[in-house]
Design a protein that fits this description.
single chain, alpha+beta, Creatine Kinase, Chain A, domain 2, seven-stranded antiparallel sheet, 13 helices, 13 strands, 13% strand, globular, EC 6.3.2.2, nucleotide-binding, YbdK, glutamate-cysteine ligase activity, ATP binding
């Protein structure tokens, strides 16, 4: 913002190249009960003592370990670091008698019995958000992609919002909640948006509007307890990235590689459109909101809105064409093999479909947890 506005500028640490970073939230499971185990501190301490090069973060819940990559040029590099870190976490967890598991949400664990990590900010969040904040037994994937200038950030975010249902449907893996099948592909999505700092971003036209908005949030106290907004897609000024937080956590590294490749390609695709002077796609906010709901409800079976004229197509058709359209760029970015794993997910079914098939046959969520734990072991890039 200009001088005299009273609005403090938000410096954006520009990234000269479209570098990549990934965060993957993984939970610890008691192999006897298949319930969540609040042992993240012990696991993290054990890994740090043995593998100080591995970057892990304590998350909101004491049952969760977050794997955080460094800055990478390509998807294979980021995935390789995650594989290394996953092996270290698996070793520590096994020594403590635990299994590793990941999905968008746990299908039967009681949120009342899952302690929050011992961090003042988390306690403040619970105090403010109460019932909704206490229920966040949810896990996601965050993908950071470097952006060269802050003027590009919001045009790219607004364009990415037109692909919101594609990123969500591909990874939707949270149909079960509190022991029931919710009927949603991603119940995580519906839960998370209840928090006052979460949900869809507003379609800001430029960086100045974002600075003005954050100024207002600071004055009104909205972000006092968190320091930031937790939009589904947001700027990360400290890192010079756009952070895409749409996806449910996948149960395995193979599917994670697919969605990271798709995300990387989409961001670079829109960035190149700016280079060429082309107009980036944008949808009306009500269409974006409807697409989010449809992907959360129906996953890969969603019919999504694809144009400002309210044209509609099946998200599976869209995803299949996206893989072909982005293939040359993926080749350039070194992630063609990972991008092509999107097609594999379309054939096999997303996480929510695999979970639901097992639950429908067995009537139990226990084998659903077991299947996801096996996928963590077996489904590697």
């Amino acid at each position: 913002m200009g001088p005299g506005t009273g609005i403090e500028p938000i410096p954006f640490r520009r990234s000269p190249r479209p570098t990549l970073g990934v965060e993957w939230e993984i939970a610890l499971i008691d192999p006897e009960t298949r319930d969540l185990a609040p042992k993240a501190v012990e696991v993290i301490d054990l890994v740090r003592s043995r593998h100080p090069e591995v970057h892990l973060e304590k998350e909101f819940l004491q049952n969760t370990v977050e794997l955080v990559t460094g800055i990478h040029e390509t998807v294979p590099e980021a995935v390789a670091e995650l594989a290394r870190d996953l092996a270290a976490v698996k070793e520590a967890a096994a020594d403590l008698g635990l299994c590793l598991w990941s999905s968008g949400s746990h299908p039967f664990s009681d949120w009342r019995k899952n302690p929050v990590s011992a961090k003042m900010a988390y306690a403040e969040i619970i105090e403010r958000t109460r019932y909704w904040g206490s229920q966040m037994l949810i896990w996601g994937i965050h993908v950071h992609v470097g952006i060269s200038h802050e003027d590009r950030v919001w045009p790219i975010i607004n364009a990415l919002m037109t692909r919101y249902p594609h990123l969500l449907a591909l990874t939707a893996s949270s149909p079960g909640w509190d022991g029931i099948d919710t009927g949603y592909a991603s119940n995580r999505t519906m839960l998370y948006q209840q928090l006052p700092t979460a949900g869809l971003p507003f379609q800001f036209r430029n960086w100045a509007e974002w600075e003005s908005y954050m100024h207002d949030q600071g004055i009104s106290g909205v972000i006092n307890h968190t320091g930031s907004m937790h939009f589904d897609i947001r700027p990360a000024p400290k890192w010079g990235t756009v952070e895409v937080r749409v996806s449910d956590a996948t149960s395995n590294l193979r599917e994670l590689a697919a969605v990271v490749a798709l995300t990387h390609c989409l961001v670079v695709h829109y960035d190149r459109m700016i280079d060429r002077g082309e107009e980036l796609p944008v949808l009306q906010p009500w269409h974006v909101a409807e697409n989010k709901w449809r992907a959360a409800r129906y996953g890969l079976e969603a019919l999504v809105i694809t144009s400002r004229d309210t044209d509609e197509r099946w998200v599976t058709q869209e995803l299949a064409e996206l893989v072909d359209e982005l293939a040359p760029l993926a080749t350039e970015l070194g992630c063609l093999a990972e991008l092509q794993l999107v097609s594999e997910i379309l054939e096999r079914g997303a996480g929510y479909q695999r979970q639901r098939r097992i639950h429908d046959v067995t009537g139990s969520w226990i084998p659903v947890i077991d299947a996801a734990c096996r996928e963590m072991e077996e489904m590697v890039p």
